[in-house]
Amino acid sequence: MLILGSGGRESAFAWKLSQSSDLAKLYIAPGNAGTAQYGINVNIKATDFDAIAEFALQNKIDMILVGPEEPLVLGIHDFFLAHPRAGHIPVIGPQKEGAQLEGSKDFSKQFMVRHSIPTAAYRSFDRSSLEAGFDYLDTQQAPIVLKADGLAAGKGVLICSSIAEAKEELRAMIADSKFGEASSTVVIEEFLNGIELSVFVLTDGNSYKLLPSAKDYKRIGERDTGLNTGGMGSVSPAPFADQSFLDKVEERIVRPTIEGLKKDGIPYKGFIFIGLMSVAGEPYVIEYNVRMGDPETQSVMPRIEGDLLDLLQGVAQGDLAHRSFSVSGQTAATVVIVSGGYPGSYETGKAIANISSVKESIVFHAGTRAEGEEILTAGGRVMAVTAVEDTLFDALQQSTADAGRIYFEGKYYRRDIGFDLLDF
Ligand code: AMP
Asked: What percent of the chain has pLDDT over 90?
């Protein structure tokens, strides 16, 4: 088995897969200092398709699990299918067309409208329709949401508090290429007022399994203030997503999504991460992602009771319907520890101390590297600390306390992850 990626998400996949009795050998490319506990790190970038294929052939890899979106949007699955010698190796993750659900906001909005999946009302504009975009904004009310169509490293969404600001930003995105090529088309979308959560689905293209739900925390500052980050923490399950809400999600969103992919003739084998807004108890899709989330995976994997490798084999072989797992009734909470300065500029190469003092939580490495006996920081998000406990309160207490035990110069973490959910 080969996992592609180097973050906390891939650490959580590696941790879970390493528990499978069927696993003969696990490789992670490129991995981090933590994934080396579960398998063998291979120094190949997740976007170097030729090198990945050669490695996979030489090492008789039976399956490739793609962690991040970039290789999927760039077509790694299609690359393997077309490869003269590596075409038989199953890739978990959609082909390029399905990956457009994440790679293009306009594509995903059209998909939702076509299949009557609840989402915010929207219109798309580009350079040829910029004036029409200004006219459209005059008919709308603030706040209003502007989204760069393409991948913009999580930065391409702007929530504008006035129509005048929205016009300025629309011009900056389309005419001045604020997010480069990604904002040459812009989706203007109604602002949804509610509470966010994520639902994860695994599909072989025919049937699907609902994985545990989660809520993530994106802002750098406590009480959700400051700049957006890749993710500062997560909790699974989202306590406000009760069974009746999840039933609505399954009926109105998950099933029509899988059926819609089939109707559109889009093959899809892999994870679908559905970002939702609960508006007065009614679910709306904010976005699709075509892979698992980071740091949601770190909270979701420990709650899956069963063999992840068996589920992935079901995806690859198209018989997922015959595989099963159960979901732990416990709560998982994940606190991400970052380098000082992140998400702005930060230093790396700081020695990390006291990891072994964490006894009750799982430490998932992200931006780390090993140098001799030492573990050094090597990125913005350095590690994620996940506690699984009987109650939400205990999981939050434990993960926050354990995040406090780990030390490196400039270390920062939020002490409030999940505490807002105690009232639900
Ligand atoms: P996205 O990349 O589409 O997930 O958007 C990033 C973030 O912007 C989301 O996680 C939401 O917090 C927010 N957002 C996106 N679309 C909307 C919307 N229509 N209404 C309110 N907030 C939104």
From this structure: 98
Segments in 152-289 forming alpha helices (H) = 163-174, 243-249, 255-263
Q: Is 191 in the pocket of ligand 1 (CB under 6 A)?
A: yes
Task: Give 116-169 pLDDT, tens digit per residue.
Answer: 999 999 999 999 999 999 999 999 999 999 999 998 877 789 999 999 999 999
Whether the link from the prior residue into 302 is cis, omega within 30° of 0, is no
Q: What angle is formed at CA 288 by the lines to CA 67 and CA 181, rounded to 5 degrees?
A: 85
Q: Hey, whose CA ends up nearest to atom 12 of ligand 1?
A: 196
Say if strands 144-148 and 195-203 run parallel, antiparallel, or are unpaired.
Answer: unpaired
Answer for the pair 35, 10: CB distance below 8 angstroms, yes or no.
Answer: yes
- Residue 291: the pLDDT is 98
Alpha helices in 238-340 (DSSP H): 243-249, 255-263, 296-300, 308-317
CA 333 / ligand 1 centre spacing (Å): 22
Distance 159 CA to ligand 1 centre (A): 8
CA–CA distance from 384 to each of 49, 66, 258, 395, 400 (Å)? 28, 20, 31, 14, 10
Distance 145 CA to ligand 1 centre (A): 8
Dist. CA 220–CA 349, nearest whole Å: 21
Q: Which of 216, 197, 196, 220 is nearest to 414 (CA)?
A: 220
* Phi, psi (deg, nearest 5) at residue 93: 140, 145
| Residue to substitute in 106, 159, 169, 217 for testing ligand 1 pocket (most ligand atoms within 8 angstroms of CB) | 159
* Beta strand ranges found along 23-121 (DSSP E): 27-30, 40-41, 64-66, 91-92
Cβ of residue 120 lying under 6 Å from some atom of ligand 1: yes
Helices (H), 178-290: 243-249, 255-263
What number of residues does the chain have? 424
Cα distance from N-terminal residue to C-terminal residue, the chain: 40
Residue 287 Cβ inside 6 Å of ligand 1? The answer reads yes
> Is residue 11 pLDDT above 90, yes or no?
yes
Residue 143 Cα to ligand 1 midpoint, Å, equals 12
pLDDT of residue 279 exceeding 80: yes
Instruction: Confirm or reject: Cβ of 144 under 6 Å from ligand 1.
Output: no
CA-193 nearest atom, ligand 1: 21
